[in-house]
């Protein structure tokens, strides 16, 4: 556990060491919880600006188990005023009454990408201010493929050419639905039907025609010798880091490892499937106001006018890079980095990950289906039809 630190006049501490971590924040103060891998010192600097302007003290606490601790604390009326985490937990928190619906100003709505607001919407109401966005993309080794393919149909021929050098064209953690889903969504596969700001968890498209096209494609790449059977994230990561494979489907968290291994890489769109664009799942780091907070107006003021602004996001990004962001003006600044720009483009092309509790059944059923397909234990039809039944059961 990291030691508590002070950032100017604003307290920053680990959740495990903060005094009375489960107690409610006193009126006239704000407490914010954020993950330990994010720019909590930068967030504290935003808090310092808020304190200078309003006299309200802002306390920032960080930990890697923010969701578990927040759920426990907020359920008993304690915890932070603001929690910053990935949007996919919001459905659970709304169902449990832990976070408050918000009403961003029309100006703020216009400043932030529409797809990011969609991610923080549950049953038609908005529950969070979007901060950063994340999506997987095609990461390619420029030395092996200066001009990466734009269609999956090109890959077998490219792979045959690279095999002459002892290399392969592409590999990814194909049994992990998060990485494989962009192919499923390309031709109309969908996790849950989405209409009028809500997901219908009784209606899944994991076994529709578009999904089966994707699963058949993946199976053919393995059977054709373009990818090894039984590959996982570690195998993929090592192969790309060694220069043994030209392209992977992965996210921004992997860039540092590839840079440290001397790989000159770029990021672009995942190839099209039968002419249709691949659509990654999009994660949105978002800030929500706790229902237990006695400082809801102050919390909203902080988020609306201090954090989700160009200046506020710059402070957080300067501490630990946010990657792509939902704020349009600040994203224009960050687009000077072509890989961040490509990540944002992939997010724009993708679809927000559903923020409903039924995702647990989706992940479990699809993992089994993909393993059975790629391991030749079930046909595509059998595996995906079974998965669909499990998901909506």
TrEMBL record:
Pfam family, one: SBP_bac_1
Signal peptide: 1-23
Transmembrane segments: none
GO molecular function: carbohydrate transmembrane transporter activity; maltose binding
Main localization, broad class: periplasm
Gene Ontology terms: cellular component: ATP-binding cassette (ABC) transporter complex, substrate-binding subunit-containing; periplasmic space
PROSITE patterns: SBP_BACTERIAL_1
Compartments it resides in: Periplasm
GO BP terms in the entry: maltodextrin transmembrane transport; maltose transport
Keyword tags: Periplasm, Signal, Sugar transport, Transport
Family recorded in the similarity comment: Belongs to the bacterial solute-binding protein 1 family.
NCBIfam families (UniProt xref): PRK09474.1
UniProt function note: Part of the ABC transporter complex MalEFGK involved in maltose/maltodextrin import. Binds maltose and higher maltodextrins.
Designated name of the protein: Maltodextrin-binding protein
Organism: Alginatibacterium sediminis
This protein's encoding gene: malE
